Amino acid sequence: MSEKLWGGRFSKSTDEMINEFQASIAFDKRMYHEDIAGSIAHATMLAKCGIISGEDRDAIIGGLKDILGQIEAGTFEFSVDLEDIHMNIEKRLTDAIGEAGGRLHTARSRNDQVALDTHMYVRRQVTEVEGLIIELQKALVETAEKYRETIMPGYTHLQRAQPILFAHHLLAYFAMLVRDFARFQGVYERADIMPLGAGALAGTTFPIDREFVAQQLNFESIYHNSLDAVSDRDYIMEFLSAASILMVHLSRLSEETILWCSREFSFVELDDAHCTGSSMMPQKKNPDVSELVRGKTGRVIGHLMAMLTAVKGLPLAYNKDLQEDKEGIFDAIDTVKFSLAVYARLIRGMKVREEVTRKAVAEDFSNATDLADYLVKKGMPFRQAHAVSGKAVHDCIEKGIWLEDMSLEDFRKLSSLFGDDIKEAIRPETCVRNRNSLGGTSYEQVRLQLASAKQLLEAEEKYCTEAAVRQL
Asked: Can 278 be counted among the known catalytic residues?
């Protein structure tokens, strides 16, 4: 006869290779806190409903707390033969307190138990990810304030386009992170639904109180369909989707950071503590943090694709395929949290070479649009002004000069509308100052964006504090 806790109908022990193949304890043991908290709430509910005695409840809770202490002290030995975190804890509990331990699993299945653990774990991790998003946002705001008057080229097609403020560029990433934060808020809402009580798939014959368990575990709502409760992995797919988009944002920032600190750009200098050297070339200073984050982005996206693929053909309700949800989301959580943490440090340690970025906008034609706008404000139709500005650029290229080097006489050969104020109109500082439309790159608009960013940070921090309080 099988020695498994579920082995009553089996006449043989499980093949050792099959044991290894199906066991999840190597990775799901990290949910021990959630598993024990869920079992304590379940035992408390069973006693409240008269399904087990108060004595059994107390023995179960005492035993579970002892096990929690053993795991946290590192003295608990996990067994592959017991497959997962649930069976490892239940077996140790039964060994410790006897028959009472065998009553803990009354009115529940590993199907709704693992769903509960995963909901609780994802809920907690979402709050931690949100906290790290806030920390990176703070780093961006601090650095933007430090360089709030630094001018740099703005790009389209990786070609210099128009002068912008470096702070404006960083605040674009702040805005992306605001959306990332909001996406994780949605993930939290879908993780904050309590599945316990669904049983294996059809509920239970025992008079349980699911609302009581939800209150004990601080869940906002309860699944109202038992089949959905044990088979739903939407919140995991949503987490992986939100994580993938977040990593794409970090990857874009990584790509720019790598470009900016290259000799060809030389816009920024990364802190030595955030770079590595070469084993062969003594002069090298490599932006490894940015490169690793860029590389790990594909890993997180891969976990999303794997989860979508695993779920796409599953009939209701539970299938062992769903065990594949754990390793991907655990790795994605670890990757996202580490990437956010290291990037906050990298941004804070980054030094901008202001003289280089200012020279870059002085030695290009990114003020050509402002030249056209000047003529439009003098009454010329934009399409005609665009052509005149383009001709001015062409003439400068032919002469090997920039627009600011043109004489007033040269300008007036192109149009009589040019006046003595044209040189001031196309200075990079003027180009930036005049882009004062809402959300633009002007000094005033960036000041407003920084003020708004600080208000958003306060709201996000308040949300995270409240979310943490709602959890165990």
From this structure: yes
